[in-house]
Write a structure and sequence with these properties.
7 helices; 6-stranded antiparallel sheet; Phosphatase 2c, domain 1
Length: about 300
């Protein structure tokens, strides 16, 4: 398939923090990267900048846009980024890290990859949300193990504790969740953002904003206005699909959005319809026995 874009737009704000630990980068309007660094002053920004810059370097040197881009290529790109990050294995910089969101647009559709809790959304105005990357977080692991409910996962004060990040000098390098998206049409948006963009904005508010008749520039300004008083660094990419031309063989390409476990929309608890207007039964979930102790146990194991 051939995918064309309207001019991509970006947001990169420091918020109320003393330094900017978010980094964004793009190459050839095909590769988009957004990272949220961790580790404090002169640490988080080093990690996020290193990963963004090294990925752009690798793509420039190794990607032939006339050939298919594969998961193997993505693995090689991330290995290169980890190698560049490993130069900071000594001293206090060893404790730094960064999240990663990556979007690559090619002839086989879109590959989306993420590590941590920076997010990728696929929004279709008029239809709704098709994909939201699932956060690699402590509360999701607690939910998955049955220790807390879905509602508790969404509202927990520990929801910003992440379980995956790119860090230097680690023996077991964290791998991304990767999804292949081929259900792409004119008018779709791909929205990449650090968690700072979501301090005071819900998915419903995002959908309303992206479904409006405003221009992309006006939508970008709305996002800036809505996050002007956010505490955290906040960054985003707005990628608007202009046109998609189908080619021979595209019908064989698999779209993974509807089935992938890394799509947060696919982990919402099953609701059983009893055909009674006044009764809705939600599939039973286990309550937390000792949530605080479970959190401590997981943190000690990281």
């Amino acid at each position: 398939m051939k995918i064309s874009l309207y001019p991509p737009l970006s947001i990169h704000e420091i918020g109320q923090r003393p330094n900017q630990e978010d980094s964004i980068a793009q190459w050839d309007n095909r590769l988009f990267v957004l990272c949220d660094g961790m580790g404090g002053h002169e640490k988080g920004e080093v990690a996020s900048q290193t990963v963004c810059e090294s990925l752009v370097t690798w793509f420039k040197e190794h990607v032939n846009t006339e050939e298919p881009f594969t998961n193997t290529n993505l693995h090689e790109a991330l290995e290169y980024a980890y190698t560049q990050l490993d130069q900071y294995t000594d001293g206090e910089l060893k404790r730094m890290g960064t999240t990663l969101t990556l979007l690559y647009i090619g002839g086989e559709g879109i590959i989306a990859a993420h590590i941590g809790d920076s997010r990728i959304y696929h929004i279709r105005p008029g239809k709704g949300l098709l994909y939201q990357s699932r956060d690699h977080s402590l509360v999701f692991e607690l939910y998955q193990s049955g220790e807390i409910t879905y509602e508790e996962m969404l509202s927990s004060p520990q929801k910003n504790i992440i379980t995956r990040a790119m860090q230097p000098g680690v023996e077991n390098r964290m791998r991304p969740d990767v999804i292949h998206i081929t259900d792409i049409t004119s008018g779709d948006y791909f929205y990449m953002c650090s968690d700072g963009m979501l301090e005071q904005m819900t998915n419903d508010e995002l959908l309303t904003l992206f479904s409006s008749e405003k221009t992309d520039e006006e939508k970008c300004q709305q996002l800036k206005d809505a996050t002007a008083h956010n505490q955290d660094n906040h960054s985003a990419w707005l990628i608007h699909i202009k046109d998609v031309v189908k080619e021979e063989g595209d019908e064989k390409l698999e779209n993974e959005e509807s089935t992938s476990r890394c799509n947060a929309l696919n982990i919402i608890p099953e609701v059983i319809d009893t055909n009674k207007d006044d009764v809705v039964i939600v599939k039973e979930e286990k309550k937390a026995k000792t949530l605080l102790q479970k959190i401590k146990d997981v943190l000690l194991s990281l």
